[in-house]
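Final report, Chapter 2: Outcomes

The project's central promise was a pipeline that accepts a single protein chain and returns its three-dimensional structure in a standardized token representation, suitable for archiving and comparison. That pipeline is now operational. To close this chapter, we reproduce one record exactly as it appears in the project archive, with the input sequence first and the structure output second.
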Amino acid sequence: MRWIKVNVDQSGFYRVNYEDNLVVRLRKAIQNNCLLPTDKFGL
């Protein structure tokens, strides 16, 4: 998977409404340990 990280180091607080297909991709990435703990926390 390719990702673009827009909130590097969790430097801001943003409300996001993820589309269903992105939620599925994020869930898979979390289950496969493709994200750093700080990135998981930022979701």
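Archive annotation: The chain has a mean pLDDT of 88.
This record, like all others produced under the grant, will remain available to the consortium after the project formally closes.
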